[in-house]
Amino acid sequence: MRQILHISDVHFGPPHRPEASDGVVTLVERRRPDLVVISGDLTQRARPEQFREARAFVDRLAVPSLTVPGNHDVPMYRFWERLLTPFGAFRRHFATDLEPTYEDDEMLVVGVNTAFNWTIKDGRVTASGLRRLQRLLERGADSRARIVVAHHQLVPPPRFDSQRVLRGAHRMVDLLADAGVELVLSGHLHQSWIGTTEAYYPSGRRPVLLLHSGTSTSSRGRGSERGRNTCNWIRLDDGEIEISNFGWDAEGDRFLERSRHRFPRRDRDSYALEAY
Ligand SMILES: [Fe+2]
Ligand SMILES: [Fe+2]
Which CATH superfamily is domain 2-275 in? Predict the structure, then answer.
């Protein structure tokens, strides 16, 4: 059995809420996940001090973590830096690896960087990025759970204001299905969402489960999560993926479980969305 805490869009800078990041640290101390995944947008404006604050936050987490960049981790207004070294500040002040992996004997988690230098808000995956992903996922064909982390969405959630997906999404979805990936962890929407690739990419391939975390520690929540903070708790065991969505309870000063969802593991033909 493995457990992952999935947080996203922590947005260090003006919109950051320190009480919520303290709440994440407490949640990790209390429940001790095997891994914390941070699916991008560490900062608001990619400033060195914002990356340093993000680094200090991650260093407070009592367990291993895996982080990919988001579009906000590329400088928007510093033209030359954006053109020539879009991830220079991220690398200098947060981490050198933009696409980290984590593996143990039960899971293989692969990070994909979908932000790039001319991003305003959209994402992309390149042909070489897909080749790298395929190589990593094929390494050690075994029964470990395969999980991919990418900031931008592969499917436009219903009723969400933007119906755009990351460039290269279709090819990436086919690759993920063929490589036996069971779960993709994303952010960017600032709103929690669970879905599958099935309705949007009716290729006949095995559907892949998609999970978005809202903004876990900033004031930038959208839609039904306007002004709110959320994160996901994932439990993987032999037969099931169980996902709990947590919301920040300001009065109790802690994250509380809001809903729980269960999905059969990959030996089944399709996922049944079963929430209660
Ligand atoms: Fe964001
Ligand atoms: Fe984003």
Answer: Metallo-dependent phosphatases (3.60.21.10)
The tens digit of pLDDT for each residue in 81-132 reads: 888 899 999 999 999 999 999 999 999 999 999 999 887 789 999 999 999 9
Ligand 1 center from residue 190 Cα (angstroms): 6
For 187, the 3-state DSSP assignment is coil
**In terms of Cα–Cα distance, which of 158, 163, 69 is closest to 119?**
69
Smallest CA-to-CA distance from 209 within 275, 265, 135 is with: 265
Entry field: residues in the chain: 276
In angstroms, rounded to a whole number, what is the distance separating the alpha carbons of residues 125 and 192?
Answer: 22
Cα of 40 from ligand 1 centre, angstroms: 7
pTM: 0.95
Return the ligand number nearest the Cα of 115: 2
Cα–Cα distances (Å) from 85 to 52, 88, 91, 196, in that order, read: 18, 5, 10, 35
